[in-house]
Amino acid sequence: MVNDTIAAISTSLGVGAISIVRISGKDAIRIANSVFKGKNLEEVDSHTINYGHIVDGEEVIDEVLVSVMKSPRTFTTEDVVEINCHGGIATTKKVLELLLLNGCRLAEAGEFTKRAFLNGRIDLVEAESVMDLINSKTDKARKVSINQLGGKISGTIRNFRQDLLELLASIEVNIDYPEYEDIEVITNEKLCSKVKDIKERLNEIVTLSENGRIVVDGIKTVIIGRPNVGKSSILNRMLDYDKAIVTDIEGTTRDIIEGDINVDGILLHLVDTAGIRNTSDTVEKVGVDRSLKELDEADLVVLVLNNNEELNDYDYQLLEKIKDKTAIVAINKCDLDNKLDKNSINNQNIVEINTVDLDGIVALKDKIKELFNLEELDKGDYNYLSNVRQITLAKTALNVLQEVEEGLKRDDPVDLIGIDIKRIWEILGEIIGENYSDELIDQLFSQFCLGK
Ligand code: GDP
Q1: What residues flank ligand 1, with Cβ below 6 Å?
Q2: 238 in Cβ contact with 270 (< 8 Å)
Q3: 312: left (phi > 0), else alpha (psi -120 to 50), else beta?
Q4: What is the CATH number for 93?
C-alpha cells in the first residue's frame, strides 16, 4: 500500500462547465475537508455527494460538489475524493494548488490507475484497457477496451495458467512419487495431448488478438512507389481532401504526409512516402530513408505502379521489398493507355485504379477489408488481447509451447518439460501483471494522461 495522498485535475484542462479534481490516499478526506466549507467531510457517509465551497482561509475559491468515496470500494481501493469545480483553468488550478499546499502530492501520469493495479483492484490488461478506452477513436476500439476492462480476456488467461499449473502438478507428482500406485501416471502421450490442446486454444487467441490490435490501433498503411505514379493523389482521394500536394514535377512529395480514414469502423492510418528510388538528391534521400523506415513499421503497404509506363528496375526492387509484407499492388492511371505488363507482377493482391474515377478507390478499400478480415471481425465478440506488449508475450508463450511439443516428441526428460511449462505459466502471468518489473510498470503508466 502506498502511503502518500495524490491529487490531480482529471478532466482536460480548458474552459468547460465542470472540471474534476481527484484525490486518492489515506488522507484524501481529511485534506479535502481542510479546504472545504460545508458539511464535515470526515463524518459524511461513503459514496455521497456534498455541496459546499472550497475556501482558502476566508476567501471563497469556488462553489463545488464533493464526492466522498471511502476505501475499499473505490477506483484505487483507497479513500477517494472528487471535487466537481466550475470548469476553467484558473479555478481548477487554484483548487489543485490548495490541495497540494495542504498535504497532497501532485499525481504522476496514470498514477490513479497504477494504484488500482498495485492495490490489486485491476490487473495489467484491465489497466491498459483504461487508457485504450480513453484513446478510442472508433466505436469498435471502444468495444474491445470496455470488454477488456470487464476482465473477460484476463479470465481466459487465468484459465490457461490454471491448466498449466495442473499439468505441472501432475508432472511433479510423477517425478517426486513415482512409486505410489494411486497417482495417475502422466504418460508422454497424455502430456502431448494436453499440451496440444492448450497450444491450439492459445493460438486461436493470438490470431484473434492480432485482429484485435488492428481494431484498437488501426491499420498503419504506407503508400510507396516511384515519384509521379500517383501516391499523393491516392492518399487525397482516400482522405477526401487536399492534404498532400499533388503536382506533376517528379519528387515533389518530399516528406511524409499522413491522415486517418475510417474503413467500416476500423481506423486506417495512411502515410504517403517520398518516392523510394536511388537518388543523390539529399532532401529526397532523407525522405527515402524515412520511407524505408515507415515500410518496416507498416501493417499494410500499398505499392503504386503506373499503368501508363512499363515496369522498370525501381518497380521491381519495390515489388521485391514488399514480398514478405501484407501488401496491395495498386496499378494506378488505368484511365490511360496500358503499357505495363501485369503478368510480370508477382503478387496476388492487385487492384487496378485511377484517381479520376472513384471506383478504383472503392476496390482498394474492399481489398483492405478482405486482407484484414474486417467483415469477420464484426462477427466476433471483441474479446481479445489488444496491444503489442500483450500479444508479444502470448506469442512467446506459444513458441515455448512449441518447444515443449518438440521436446515431448524427442522424449526429453519430464523434468525438463516441467521447466518449460513453468516458464509458459510465468509468461502468461506477465500479460495480466502477476509478475512484473518496476521499470515496466513505470514505463507503462507514464503513457497515461494526468489525473487518470
Ligand atoms: P506521387 O509523386 O506518386 O505522389 O504522384 P502524384 O499523386 O503527385 O501524381 C503525379 C501526377 O499524376 C499528377 O499530375 C496527377 O494528377 C497525375 N495522376 C495521379 N493519378 C492519376 C490517374 O489515375 N490518372 C491520370 N491520368 N493521372 C493521374
Answers
A1: 225, 227-233, 246-248, 253, 275, 332-333, 335-336, 354-356
A2: yes
A3: beta
A4: 3.30.1360.120
Query: Whose CA is closest to 35, among 108, 100, 107?
Result: 100
Amino acid (one-letter) located at 192:
C
The dihedral through the CA atoms of 47, 52, 53, 57 has a sign that is negative
Are residues 215 and 284 located together in one domain of the fold? yes
| Cα 309 from Cα 325, distance rounded (Å) | 25
Is residue 310 within 8 A of residue 279, CB to CB? The reply is no
- Given a cut of 50, whether residue 393 has pLDDT beyond it is yes
Q: Looking at the domain assignment, is residue 144 inside a domain?
A: yes
pTM over 0.90: no
Which residue's C-alpha comes closest to atom 25 of ligand 1?
333
Instruction: Give the Cα separation of 225 and 175 in Å (integer).
Output: 61
293 and 181 within one domain? yes
Supply 49's cell numbers.
455527494
Cβ 172 vs Cβ 180: under 8 Å: no
Range of the domain at 260: 124-433
342 has a pLDDT exceeding 70? yes
